[in-house]
């Protein structure tokens, strides 16, 4: 089940209490795709990490459905990510020594109850992303585009209701980036997941429902494309 | 309750006690592993880390392995040396010499270490030999050699005693010119040789020109310096030194006792045997006088071993301390290594992996290095023990058969338990790292 996002009065502080991100209020409807846009250093990744509960929130709230993750302790936030969030990073962050399948089903190593289901989900996602037959190869032998697709499969394997992606196309060539964006949008729409992507990529901006503009650590606008 | 437990323990076979002690010593490691890893499957990631840092991991395993191997090897060697020296002195119940240092006399008479020692007279010898409780009184006269092998003058009875009644080949000497060689002497039956005067580099090769022996028998191996000794009639030793032959001229060709005190030139040591164990103690007391010193080589060895026992304790502590220090160094290296792996560990936490899982990954990696190092250490210990045993055997002529036993396995188990507990430290330190900063590299 997709989860809506509601953010209000968000403030993330860096060293010595300096604000590195401030956002008055914004909402993301369940099942929609949103891009966070802005120049380098504007705070796109920080906002994404705040939504994932990875950075401490000094003020305000981040609410996913009924869960106010900004009020959870670290273990609670980790449990929420485990259950509801799939994450994708710019430079893939895969375990190069492991196979595509082992990478995609990584969560099975620490989620005991859904281990079997995660394995199935990983195989299904790899197949859906065109990596069937390559799942036993170590990812060190993969191209950039293939690696990012393994990372997407890893994000999808736990069947999360939210996908958060940090510059997922930045390390890819144009063709691979386009293919990845298409896959990502299609896969999240098919399953009704909420997708939030921090990205410079115009292709991403064209594909999403809404764009949030960030500059100098502040939200400066919101563009709804397909509302 | 406690008494019942002690009784139960005492009633167990030694092998079972040792096995249980091993498990008991290893139990902290097993329990820690169970508590840390239960519910998770960190091994694929551990494998990934091992492969990524394969050369560093290998170096760590070798460092731990060598330190463990040296530790267990030294302790096993000490035990092997103790057993070897005891076995070499097995045939020497009671030794009578002139008063002096028991250790020096034992080294000379039992281990055939060259030494200048005073001689016992024929009266003394006869008093011992004619004692009602003495079944064997053999003079042991040394000082000559052949190509590094000591030539020892004694009696056929002593050769028979050393050989447990059966030579490996040939027969006992029956004439002044005959010799029986030890198992490792490079002479064959029928070979002739001329002894040198003295032992070692200062031996005078041609001092006894004109005197030669023929090898007529070979003793079985005993694992003692006597394996490299050449035994000849004590009368022949006196003869080549132009001394009286121990018997009046009318019996000049006699071999062995009884000796005539008036023609007895003297002997550095006399091996004494009594048929009854208690009699040995009485004889020791009786022959501990102003002109003689009687001692049990076993007792002298026991006091030396007691000293070695203290050394063993020190060695054990030093071995453990060294191993723990090496492991602490390795674990410190591991903390640095984890910085290189920090992005992947931060990724796990970003994906929502419980902190205990990340902890389990790091600890399991460290525990694997320690476990592999300990196993390698056992192998190194076995190899080192075999090599050192050979070297010591070659140097001392005492057969050292050192091998790893339960004490060494107990040491390894204690080491593993202690160090896997230490391995919790880098795992805790890893958890304290900032996730987002590590994620951004």
What does this structure look like?
Chain B: The chain crosses the membrane at residues 20-43, 55-76, 314-337, 357-389, 409-432. Chain B: Keywords: Membrane, Transmembrane, Transmembrane helix. Chain A is built from seven helices and ten strands. With 227 residues, chain A is of the alpha/beta class. Chain A has a single domain, classed as 3-Layer(aba) Sandwich (Rossmann fold), CATH 3.40.50.300. The model of chain A has no long low-confidence stretch (mean pLDDT 90). Chain B is of the alpha+beta class and 441 residues long. Chain B folds into two domains: 19-87 and 304-440, no CATH class; 94-295, no CATH class. The A-B interface holds A 45, 49, 52, 54-55, 74-75, 78-83, 85, 87, 89, 93, 95-98, 102, 106-110, 112, 115, 154 and B 39-42, 44-45, 47-48, 51-52, 343-344, 347-355, 357, 435-436, 439-440.
Q: Based on helices, strands and strand pairing, what is the structural class of chain B?
A: alpha+beta
The second-level CATH architecture of chain A is 3-Layer(aba) Sandwich
Which structural class best describes the helix and strand composition of chain A? alpha/beta
Number of strands of chain B: 11
Sketch the topology of chain B as an H/E string, one letter per element.
Answer: HHHHEHHEEHEEEEEEHEHEHHHHHH
Helix coverage percent of chain A: 25-40%
Number of helices of chain B: 15
Low-confidence stretches of chain B: none
Q: Find the count of extended strands of chain A (DSSP E, 2+ residues).
A: 10
- If you compute it from the alpha carbons, what radius of gyration of chain A comes out, rounded to the nearest whole angstrom? 17 Å
The biggest beta sheet of chain A reads:
6 strands, mixed
CATH superfamily of chain A: P-loop containing nucleotide triphosphate hydrolases
Spatially, the strands of the biggest sheet of chain A line up as: 6-7-8-3-9-10
Q: Please state the oligomeric state of the protein chains shown.
A: heterodimer
Output the number of helix runs of chain A. 7
Element-level helix/strand string of chain A: EEEHEEHEHHHEHEHEE
Radius of gyration of chain B: 31 Å
The termini of chain A sit apart by: 20 Å
Helix content of chain B: 55-70%
Largest interface: A-B, 30 and 26 residues
